[in-house]
Design goal:
47% of the residues lie in helices and 16% in strands. By secondary structure, it is an alpha/beta fold. The strands form 2 sheets. Strands 1-2-3-5-7-10 form a 6-stranded mixed beta sheet, with helices on both faces. Strand 2, helix 1 and strand 3 form a beta-alpha-beta unit. Helix 1 runs parallel beside helix 3, helix 5 packs across helix 6 and helix 9 packs antiparallel against helix 10.
């Protein structure tokens, strides 16, 4: 498939998906969602990919939904079709087994902010700006923002941001727990790559099981969640990397993981 709204590169087990609609500040439209759907199906089945990074440009990650496309939606049925696609793609990305890092510089608003919410980690530049401004045009976030944001920052802060539609800067995003780290603009690619490379070097099965344990357990009661964690823990004892990791520890040497 030829991509027209994203760029894709792969190096050292790290796949980088770059949003590329500069004329519209990387606004998300049907074509972007279709291409994201395709590329994440591709990375999920590529054994050479250990970590996926999604990013935009220095001035904007993604400025939200494409208002020009939304303006042509006339009925609730049309809205349902459009919103279903965004929800399906966001859920596909969120459910991916491989760790996903959002590298954010500039604006991440509306659907752009929601796209960062489905990522596992968020490394951002000092210029990053987050917001869910949908209230200002009489709607609410339609890509999971009302559900994922409270789970990350707490209900009270999420409601404030959703009710007002106000933007927050990188430092405030860090303070409320929305992002993992804030770095200088020029350091964002380097810092993101360093984190991705560190994760890619870890045993892939264990990384996968950690993600499953966290994401699968978060909505369970604590007893069920701990039981789920126990199953994930037990499964890892059937892997080569677990045996190699413990053998290397006993022999006081660096483990050589093979991703199996």
């Amino acid at each position: 498939m030829e991509y027209k709204t994203i760029n894709y590169t792969k190096k050292d087990g790290i796949a980088t998906v770059t949003l590329n609609r500069p004329a519209s500040m990387n606004a998300l439209n049907t074509q972007v969602f279709g291409e994201l759907q395709h590329i994440f199906s591709r990375t999920e089945t590529d054994d050479d990919v250990k970590v996926v990074v999604i990013t935009g440009s220095e001035k904007f990650f993604a400025a939200g939904a494409d208002i020009m496309e939304l303006a042509n939606i006339a009925t609730p049925l049309d809205v349902q079709r459009y919103a279903r696609l965004s929800r399906e793609v966001f859920r596909q990305i969120e459910a991916a087994e491989k760790p996903l890092i959002a590298a954010v510089s500039g604006f991440a608003l509306g659907g752009g902010c929601e796209l960062t919410l489905v990522c596992d980690l968020r490394i951002v530049s000092e210029s990053a700006v987050f917001g869910l401004p949908e209230i200002k045009i009489g709607v609410l976030p339609g890509g999971g923002g009302t559900q994922r944001l409270p789970r990350l920052v707490g209900t009270t802060k999420a409601k404030e941001l959703l009710y007002t539609g106000d933007n927050i800067d990188a430092q405030e995003a860090l303070r409320i727990g929305l992002v993992n780290k804030v770095v200088p603009v020029e350091k964002l690619p380097e810092e993101t790559y360093a984190l991705a490379k560190k994760i890619a070097a870890r045993p892939a099965a264990a990384v996968k099981m950690i993600k499953l344990a966290v994401d699968g357990g978060i909505n369970l009661d604590i007893k069920s969640a701990i039981a789920y964690e126990a199953r994930c823990f037990e499964i890892l004892f059937s892997t080569y990397d677990q045996q190699e990791g413990m053998k290397a520890f006993r022999e006081k040497r660096k483990a050589v993981f093979k991703g199996r």
